[in-house]
Design brief:
Layout (H helix, E strand, L loop, with lengths): L6 E5 L8 E4 L13 E6 L3 E11 L13 E2 L8 H13 L4 H8 L7 E3 L1 E4 L12 H12 L2 E3 H8 L5 H9 L3 E4 L10 E7 L6 H14 L1 H14 L8 E3 H8 L3 H9 L3 E7 L18 H16 L2 E6 L5 H14 L3 E5 L3 H15 L3 E3 L6 H12 L12 E4 L11 E7 L17 H12 L2 E6 L4 H8 L4 E5 L10 E6 H6 L9 H12 L3 E5 L8 E4 L16 E3 L4 E3 L6 E3 L12 E4 L3 H11 L5 E4 L9 H10 L5 E4 L12 E6 L3 H4 L6 H13 L10 E6 L5 H8 L2 H15 L5 E10 L2 H19 L3 E5 L5 E2 L2 E11 L4 H17 L7 E6 L3
Parallel strand pairs: 13-18, 13-19, 14-16, 14-17, 15-16, 17-18, 20-30, 21-28, 21-29, 27-28, 29-30
Antiparallel strand pairs: 1-2, 1-4, 3-4, 3-5, 4-6, 7-8, 7-9, 10-11, 10-12, 22-26, 23-24, 24-25, 31-34, 31-35, 32-34, 33-34
Helix pairs in contact: 1-2, 1-14, 6-7, 7-8, 7-9, 10-11, 21-22, 24-25
Amino acid sequence: MERVTLFVDVLLPLPLPGTFTYRVPFALNDAVQAGQRVSVQFGPRKVYAGLIVKIHQQPPQKGIPKYILSVLDSRPVVNDFQLRFWQWIAGYYMSTLGEVMAAALPSAFKLSSESKVVLSPDFVPDTETLSEPEYRLTEALLQKKKLTVHEVSRIVGYQKVLPLLKTMIERRLIMMEEELVQQYKPKKTKMIKLSEAFLDERALQQLMDQLSKRAHKQLELLMGFLTLSGFPLKKDFSVSKSDLLHKTQASENALKALTDKGVFVQEEVVISRFTGENNETEKTFSLSAEQQKAFHSLKEQMQEHRVVLLHGVTSSGKTELYIKLMEEALAEGKQVLYLLPEIALTTQIINRLRKHFGDEVGVYHSRYNQNERAEVWENVAGIQSAEVHKPYRIILGPRSAMFLPFDRLGLVIVDEEHDSSYKQFDPAPRYNARDAVIYLAGLHDARVVLGSATPAVETYFNAQNGKYGLVELSERFGGVKMPEIIVVNMKEEKRRRMLKSHFSSVLLHHIQAALDDKKQVILFQNRRGFSTRIECEQCNWVPECKYCDVTMTYHKKSQLLKCHYCGYSRPVPAVCEHCGSPNLVMQGFGTEKVEEELAMILPDAKIDRMDLDTTRAKNAFQRIIYDFENRKTDILTGTQMVTKGLDFENVQVVGILSADNMLSFPDFRAHERSFQMMEQVSGRAGRKDKQGIVIIQTWQPKHPVIQDVVQHDYQSMYNRQLAERWRFRYPPYYRLVMVKLKHKKPELLNEAAAVLARDMKARFGNLVYGPEYPMVSRVKNWYIKQIMLKIKRNEQLSDRKKELQEAISEFKKQTPYKSVRVQIDVDPQ
């Protein structure tokens, strides 16, 4: 039979364009499939796990292709839907396919190694025939069994060691050993079952009689196993070793003795890491009249539009509508993807969904370790046996969950669709999951529901113009009134000397009233840390990060100044480093200071904090939310994490401590974001019975955004934003592409940015803005400049992006600027 020479196009998780062609050894012809991982050598030193995207018989036009080294998967881990989705992301967000692969795959599936050098089994030490470098290298290998190519170059004293290695391999002095470690390890446990010989009752009785004479501990263990099994004896009954020993209080020695006698058989089986999930389900709940009306409207809109916006006020019961839609999708045999902006939200919603759908609900997010994420991936891909875990038909998670290997997606829900957490900032691809998942749904012919009380301006614009369907829910569930908003003029409070630290008399009065009424309080301050900066009273010197152009934030618990951009920290200086004055004062305040000072004002209140500092641990979210839900905490203070869709029925008062920080942020979305954040955090108040109270502390009480929040008037904010954005050429009327240039030498960066901007302006005219320094112009010692391109909404986006790519490619070819990093951000947030 004629053997066919096969080639495969392999995608590597590297920021390089295109794929790479490798030859398939004849022995592996029948083993390769598109979507499988294969180990391949790339360059002289590296071995990677790449992904087969195409199998063909066309040899490459240039060069001789290397062979693939091995096939890593028995079945594809990536399907055709995903590959098409990745290609769209790479094209739309102007990144490479390798960067998308690196973002999409769990880290356990991304493998790489350096080539390792070992001594040949034929090697005989002979100093007379070895050159000086060869002698040094073989001596080192006698001491240390394996060396990387990088270590070899250090030992012999020069970089270009490959010719030396080639000669030594040909002379059979050394050999190359490729190490590619499979990182994902399925979780296994030892299961104990009764040997078939003792399933017969007479044989079992004889055994028990023997054990009763001289092996009482073994008899107790056997009796314990039989009790767990129940009667009559079940042939296939097994119990995990740990459970058996725990429940019978038996020793390892007794179990080993019975195993050695052939009474018990031990088997190692793969189990799920998620076996502790709640399986109790509650299927029944009824929709209110308003919800029922919205549900019918949703169904009608989904017939006409692939994407529907559900614009429902806070606490209007959007989740119940989602559950009804999920039931219908599951009944059709489809999968459901439920996206949330924050991991914190999964804690509450996963409990609600599991009560309804049981263990068909899976969670996928970055707080899981690499093995847990790989296990969920294999479950969705159908690689994992149903005996390990029932297939997940509903997946809940933040933006990375959209990369899972769905093959029959029927419904996508994007909750809190306005949230900026759906945007990936670094590294590339800089995608927006809300927008990308709409394309993914199109590949599967699935429907998308975007839900929010405060939709993004672009989303609402699309709904108003008929691109998306629109369903409004204007009443809170159960007829509860929207919260009363009280605006506190901080100028007036200061003039009347009514301020206690950063808390107005009005806020403290309502907090105390809520605590007296056994109710709870949420306080929102969008800055973490204790003090936003330390300043010298004499010369106004402020400590800055040595690597970034930002002031450092004081964290009292650790007694350190920290940079929130690069993580650099340092002790608090005793004196001003500019003038030597000891008069250093703290300015501004963050969540840590709110927590501490409130504890002094209200010593009997139990206060907790939810921000990036307190939620770093894997289960910190669950602990904080559980304590607040179960009223172990009276006051929860936090950053924007506390604004996002959390549902606490006992919250009476919400305080927004500093509304002005958000309003004055230099960004065209600042007013939209301020309204969304304040309206969302307001929605946490009074969700069950009694009308809640929201106190907004501000130095600008007449600001139009604050007045819109007071009136819960989204439409007013939206209309004002549209007028401004038309005037200044911003979304939704124009699309934005931000080009960032980075270099460690500011002079070279300035020159390079001017050259690229000049070329862009020649191509795009007055729709190019910059170059200019961003607000933070240096991060991790890299200086940054940015150029913004605006593209009219009705223009062909792909053509304009192609022109931009050409301009950047021409720029990169110029020798002085090859070391300048260029980052492209399409639809920046």
